[in-house]
Amino acid sequence: xxxxxxxxxxxxxxxxxxxxxxxxxxxxxxxxxxxxxxxxxxxxxxxxxxxxxxxxxxxxxxxxxxxxxxxxxxxxxxxxxxxxxxxxxxxxxxxxxxxxxxxxxxxxxxxxxxxxxxxxxxxxxxxxxxxxxxxxxxxxxxxxxxxxxxxxxxxxxxxxxxxxxxxxxxxxxxxxxxxxxxxxxxxxxxxxxxxxxxxxxxxxxxxxxxxxxxxxxxxxxxxxxxxxxxxxxxxxxxxxxxxxxxxxxxxxxxxxxxxxxxxxxxxxxxxxxxxxxxxxxxxxxxxxxxxxxxxxxxxxxxxxxxxxxxxxxxxxxxxxxxxxxxxxxxxxxxxxxxxxxx
Amino acid sequence: xxxxxxxxxxxxxxxxxxxxxxxxxxxxxxxxxxxxxxxxxxxxxxxxxxxxxxxxxxxxxxxxxxxxxxxxxxxxxxxxxxxxxxxxxxxxxxxxxxxxxxxxxxxxxxxxxxxxxxxxxxxxxxxxxxxxxxxxxxxxxxxxxxxxxxxxxxxxxxxxxxxxxxxxxxxxxxxxxxxxxxxxxxxxxxxxxxxxxxxxxxxxxxxxxxxxxxxxxxxxxxxxxxxxxxxxxxxxxxxxxxxxxxxxxxxxxxxxxxxxxxxxxxxxxxxxxxxxxxxxxxxxxxxxxxxxxxxxxxxxxxxxxxxxxxxxxxxxxxxxxxxxxxxxxxxxxxxxxxxxxx
Amino acid sequence: xxxxxxxxxxxxxxxxxxxxxxxxxxxxxxxxxxxxxxxxxxxxxxxxxxxxxxxxxxxxxxxxxxxxxxxxxxxxxxxxxxxxxxxxxxxxxxxxxxxxxxxxxxxxxxxxxxxxxxxxxxxxxxxxxxxxxxxxxxxxxxxxxxxxxxxxxxxxxxxxxxxxxxxxxxxxxxxxxxxxxxxxxxxxxxxxxxxxxxxxxxxxxxxxxxxxxxxxxxxxxxxxxxxxxxxxxxxxxxxxxxxxxxxxxxxxxxxxxxxxxxxxxxxxxxxxxxxxxxxxxxxxxxxxxxxxxxxxxxxxxxxxxxxxxxxxxxxxxxxxxxxxxxxxxxxxxxxxxxxxxx
Amino acid sequence: xxxxxxxxxxxxxxxxxxxxxxxxxxxxxxxxxxxxxxxxxxxxxxxxxxxxxxxxxxxxxxxxxxxxxxxxxxxxxxxxxxxxxxxxxxxxxxxxxxxxxxxxxxxxxxxxxxxxxxxxxxxxxxxxxxxxxxxxxxxxxxxxxxxxxxxxxxxxxxxxxxxxxxxxxxxxxxxxxxxxxxxxxxxxxxxxxxxxxxxxxxxxxxxxxxxxxxxxxxxxxxxxxxxxxxxxxxxxxxxxxxxxxxxxxxxxxxxxxxxxxxxxxxxxxxxxxxxxxxxxxxxxxxxxxxxxxxxxxxxxxxxxxxxxxxxxxxxxxxxxxxxxxxxxxxxxxxxxxxxxxx
Lengths: 342, 342, 342, 342
Description:
The structure is a homotetramer of 342-residue chains.
Chain A: E1 3-8, H1 13-22, E2 28-34, H2 43-46, E3 58-59, E4 71-74, H3 81-84, E5 93-96, H4 106-113, H5 120-125, E6 127-128, H6 131-139, E7 143-145, H7 149-163, E8 172-178, H8 193-196, E9 201-202, H9 212-220, E10 229-235, E11 242-249, H10 252-263, E12 269-271, E13 289-294, E14 301-308, H11 312-326
Parallel strand pairs in A: 1-2, 1-4, 2-3, 4-5, 5-7, 6-7, 8-10, 12-13
Antiparallel strand pairs in A: 8-11, 9-10, 11-14, 13-14
Helix pairs in contact in A: 1-11, 6-11, 7-9, 7-10
């Protein structure tokens, strides 16, 4: 018997990506789509590429009939989610794709997001949605917080190195290349095609990117003393995909071994042979994450390169993967499509 | 019980697209991959984005063990296919993606391709693979000839107008915009990123594009006297997708009605409400074809705009759709994934 | 002695392009830059790529000191220009880049722009800025109306064919491919990189594109009876450049001869040898316009392909070319830089 | 009286860029163009975007009449240049754009380029073409070696920090983002539009990029002991432009001060206010180089971001800048055009 889901905030890119992935999911059906500003409109008006599908019209959140809904995907803007989730009936499981429930510490949240959290008790219960590392907690969770897409890319590269203690924790440089869809469907000048095509735009530089809060939280659990991470994001002239280039201090071969050990059994994380590097497009529109490790002419210096699709493995695909666990389905259901290349 | 298929010429883009689509197909399995120049190499060397999959290495065509193979997809270069298909055992059904079996008339073939056909008897048997119009013939065919991707786009727009006789047959202008992947993975200067980005390149102008042979053959069947079609192709600064803008003489509303009538029951062909037009990206990486019709300030002048993905509905998706029919499977199996947007 | 100019509305793309072209102009200096919403800001805040230049800060139009200003470039939004130009002192020549003064007939203006013109007397005086055809009028004009970028592309292809009467006037199809910068620096969803990359978007279809008013006005002068032009614009996944594909009925060789005859002595209009076609990028960021003519397998059918850069020859370059004439300078001053390729 | 130059190897991108820049140069004329494989062809066949110019046809190098030639730009492939330059008459000054004369130490050359140098004596005489730092040597040089485009970007960011000794020399991480035109007009699969669009491709990883030889040579001159530089290049989905993100250890404000001190009087090097970062497109198709410095939440950690156009400031623009010095012209002649944006 299929599970019925609601997608709250379906008028954004992560909402459309959820619909796309569910379109071939064997046991999940879209029962409700909400979009407050666009309430009353058919989905085909907001996303014409879904016009051939038989989807419910967008409604306002307060119009949702929760009876018969098993799970809700919250693809709402940051700060909005924490206002909405408390009102979702307890029988409905929630996978949140916003930043609202990623940080468990309320001070940390306030530091990075500039104001107190509106639903702290839920914040404490929420499970961090990095599936491969919180699988069992997610299985039994009622609320899962989707990770930042850039945080996911970085943590997939770094976490095993912390677990295996094979790098220096106090000198990590992350050079991020991120595609424009990561900024969502928002009308900002720097996201115009004319501004970004054939360009690269550094942003949130100087240690100000909010996903650093996730790095601090997740890596501190594994490190003696706070790890020191520098992150410089660059916006790319591309639509989908993230390349996280991690510069770490350690023995390259040991680093590669650590990644292979931790991800040996994983379906979606693919560690390349030592010395090989992945291309951003190699995972396009898929739930796969490719990781490569190379050494350097300098001793104890290694570069770990992680690529994933910010809209799939970085958000909506990850959300479905977690929903599969929460609903007792095969974790890979609906997510095995090969990358779109070229 | 799954059907086992061979992909001949798997080292090109249509080969990779076949693998991608089969990766989520419920009843088709890839048993053999061939690539003469790359024989002996793992598929992950030729297409690293498939590195996480468990695929057979590429072998030479003459090494194929045909026992247990139900169907072969021929993704070989034009002219090569006609040399290979005759040697495929009769028990193996064939879906050819090259241009070799599209034209039934040997003179027409020689006119457009510059030399006599090497397998004329097969050429006569082959069924033209425009699924929605040759469904029954395809079901029982042993050899199906995949259509040209641009021909498919144009014929989806024009064929119903000929069937319903609602346009002038002797004055049709087709303005084609095609993406670079249509040229395949070939090393030609004009296909370099530096040459094509932010450019548009008219090519095969002046009525020389080979797909005109398909228009002549298919439309002549429906027209009294040879239809007169002008086609001007333009290469786009994009990877996937075709926009065929058809300028025809007829009553716009009647033209729209004809398209709705013919495609009313079709899953993959989506006719937009009158006056609405599709965007190329609305069908990206999917097997769907969107069609829009608009009128003009001039009387009896209409513009029909057809969009599809050249690698999916235009070739590999169409090939799977036809294979589904030939193998007695649901025609839509493995092809219902929503378009990738953005 | 250099001429001093004011650029009104310098915060848009045509404003920035004017500054770029003037940066190497031998006899024009930027004296004043206005931008009402951005008044008070340095130009480097609005356009960081001009940060190394020594430019005046943006001011409000009513703050302009007109003494010592020889000419004003009006790069204001449509409808704003007609409100501002009347207040420009008579000693200042004006080159307007908006649509406000292109149509001489007040009814035609109201038909295409939806409301009465606010400065009709000026509208009558204005000279249409298609330099190669109104050179002498422009030399002595006080107000020149820059043409629509798409109208310029189409008229460069069609005007000689009307002058030489070598095509049918009642059956002209124009298929336009236009880049996103033509829409200006405006925050609209369809102009986002994520929406347009790898896509093509038909727009203003069905004979509704406002530049048709310019075609009607300019071609009617040369035709017995109103010419019949169909125009279908398509937005491209590119930043700069226009390709106008003109489908006309006439003898291709005669059409080519007409273009060569009319443009024989022109510096900026380059007619390719018969049968050759231009690529959009061949004129990138330059004031050149390339034109190619090809025949067809159908008799008396020809395709004329015109390419130019919408921001240069289509607007700001054209504006400088006209300003050169109005100021008594060499028409080509500051405009001879070769195209940027690749 | 104008200087006459020969461009050897004019059929590549740097050759075309030289022609573009010279098209508006007040005192340099193109007298000869060579292209061995394309000898006998008009330049308009090789680069149609130059079709409107009156250029000499391409000839073979041994056909060049050197009388009357003042300077030769060698835009030949690596290794070819060292075979050709010795045969250029002594009265002809040479600006080489290849890698052949960048390294002064023959062992270093052999290490990085895999075989002994064919013209060691010339190699010793050659002046490294980083104009702002070797201005006087270049003025009197007969042979100037153009720098690697990526080396230029990195050295503009690092050299002042070494001169002012405000960073640690033994822990420098350079994350390079480079556009496809840097690889030249070469037919390689990974340079196809279909492969690179919407992708990022790490290459020459693990300390194997040849430009490291230039970093070692140039920085060793300023450091006590060999500096330790890690470089990870990434190919971008763009045509022109380089972003070099330099991760260094030092006081950010002191680093910014060092850059402002060294470049205070420079026309082409623009240091942004502390905390601001440049966008790749801000210098497009221009000879300008923009540099930004930001601090980090970690102490003594700074990010220096350098952007330039690989074909202009990175090679052909730099070559003209050096030629201007060698010919006794104003260093900025022909190079002051503002960047092309958008």
